[in-house]
C-alpha cells in the first residue's frame, strides 16, 4: 500500500509541474501571450493572425490580448499573463514609454518578452525586438511621393498615435527626404491614430479649406484609405495622390485599381514568424539576437500583382 501511495504522489507531482511550470497546460503544450496595442485595422488583424499561424506551426498555444490603444489596459494584461505563468510574452506596444513597467515585471518574473513591430524606449529591458526600421519605411514612401508629384506642391501628413514608434520613425523618414525638396510644403500634419474614420474626417476638413493639396501621405494604410474616400467623394482623385504603409488587402486592391498611388510592405508575415520563433527559443533557454530586422518593399501598380 505504501508503494502505491508513493507512486500516486509521484504522478501528481509530475502533473502539477506540467500544469504550472513554464506556462504549460494540462496537455503539456506551452502557452504564450500576444499583446496587441489594438485590433482596429487590417494591419493589426493581419499581424495577429500571422503570429497565430506561426504559433500553430511551432506546436504551441497562443492567446491574443487586445489592448484597445489603452496603455493601462495593456499593462494589466501583461501582469495577468505573468500571474498565470505564461511561457513567454510577445508584445506590440501601445506606447513606447508607458509599457515599461509591464516589461520590467515580466523580466523580473523570468518570463521572456519580445517586442514586435514597435520598439520601446528602454528596449534593452526586453529580450529581443523583431520588426522593421520605421525610418526606412518613411523614407521609401516619401521618395516615391516626391517622384509622383514632381518634387513640388502642398502635401499633408496623416500620423499614427503621437509618440508611437511607427509614427515617430516614419515621420522622421518623411522629413529626411524632404530636406532636399524645398518646393514641397507640408501644410497639414495631424494624428488620426491609425484609424480610417478619423483620417476620413481630417481629410474632409482639409479639402474644405480650399488649400490645393497634391498629396496626402499616411503613416499607415488604414488612414490612407480614409483619405482616399474623402478625396474620391470630393471628386479630386485626379488632383490629389494618396500614399500609405502596410500593404493591407484593401490597400493592395486600391493600388491595383489605380486609386491608391502606393503602399509600403513591412513584411508582416516575416515579422510574425521571426518573432514567434524567437520567443519560443528564448522560453526553451536558447539564445537569439537582440534585434531581428526585416525589410520594406515599395508596392505600386507596376508590381502589386506580386503581392495579391
UniProtKB/TrEMBL annotation:
Domain of life of the organism encoding this protein: Bacteria
Compartments in which it is found: Cell envelope
Species annotation: Candidatus Thalassospirochaeta sargassi
DNA repair keyword on record: no
The keyword Signal appears for this protein: yes
SUPFAM superfamilies cross-referenced by the UniProt entry: Periplasmic binding protein-like I
Any one GO MF annotation of this record: carbohydrate binding
Gene3D superfamilies the record matches: 3.40.50.2300
Domain called Periplasmic binding protein: residue spans: 33-286
Signal peptide: 1-21
InterPro entries xrefs: Peripla_BP_I, SBP_2_dom
Record-stated family: Belongs to the bacterial solute-binding protein 2 family.
Coiled coil: none
GO cellular component: cell envelope
Protein name as annotated: Sugar ABC transporter substrate-binding protein
Sorted UniProt keywords: Signal
CDD domains, per database record: PBP1_ABC_sugar_binding-like
Amino acid at each position: 500500500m505504501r508503494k502505491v501511495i508513493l507512486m500516486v504522489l509521484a504522478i501528481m507531482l509530475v502533473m502539477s509541474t506540467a500544469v504550472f511550470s513554464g506556462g504549460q497546460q494540462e496537455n503539456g503544450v506551452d502557452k504564450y501571450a500576444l499583446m496587441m496595442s489594438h485590433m482596429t485595422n487590417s494591419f493589426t488583424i493581419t499581424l495577429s493572425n500571422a503570429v497565430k499561424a506561426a504559433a500553430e506551426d511551432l506546436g504551441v498555444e497562443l492567446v491574443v490580448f487586445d489592448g484597445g490603444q489603452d496603455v493601462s489596459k495593456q499593462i494589466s494584461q501583461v501582469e495577468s499573463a505573468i500571474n498565470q505563468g505564461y511561457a513567454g510574452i510577445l508584445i506590440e506596444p501601445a506606447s513606447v514609454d508607458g509599457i515599461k513597467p509591464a516589461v520590467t515585471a515580466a523580466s523580473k518574473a523570468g518570463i521572456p518578452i519580445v517586442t514586435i513591430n514597435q520598439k520601446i524606449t528602454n528596449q534593452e529591458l526586453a529580450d529581443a525586438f523583431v520588426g522593421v526600421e520605421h525610418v526606412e519605411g518613411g523614407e521609401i514612401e516619401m521618395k516615391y511621393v516626391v517622384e509622383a508629384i514632381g518634387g513640388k506642391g502642398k502635401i499633408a501628413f496623416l500620423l499614427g498615435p503621437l509618440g508611437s514608434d511607427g509614427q515617430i520613425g516614419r515621420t522622421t523618414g518623411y522629413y529626411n527626404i524632404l530636406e532636399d525638396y524645398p518646393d514641397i510644403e507640408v501644410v497639414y500634419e495631424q494624428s488620426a491614430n491609425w484609424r480610417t474614420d478619423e483620417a476620413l474626417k481630417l481629410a474632409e476638413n482639409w479639402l474644405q479649406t480650399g488649400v490645393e493639396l497634391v498629396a496626402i501621405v499616411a503613416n499607415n494604410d488604414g488612414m490612407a484609405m480614409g483619405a482616399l474616400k474623402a478625396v474620391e467623394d470630393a471628386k479630386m482623385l485626379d488632383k490629389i495622390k494618396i500614399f500609405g504603409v502596410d500593404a493591407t488587402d484593401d490597400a493592395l486592391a486600391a493600388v491595383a485599381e489605380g486609386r491608391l498611388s502606393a503602399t509600403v510592405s513591412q513584411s508582416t508575415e516575416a515579422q510574425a514568424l521571426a518573432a514567434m520563433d524567437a520567443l519560443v527559443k528564448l522560453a526553451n533557454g536558447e539564445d537569439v539576437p537582440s534585434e531581428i530586422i526585416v525589410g520594406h518593399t515599395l508596392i505600386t501598380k507596376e508590381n502589386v500583382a506580386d503581392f495579391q
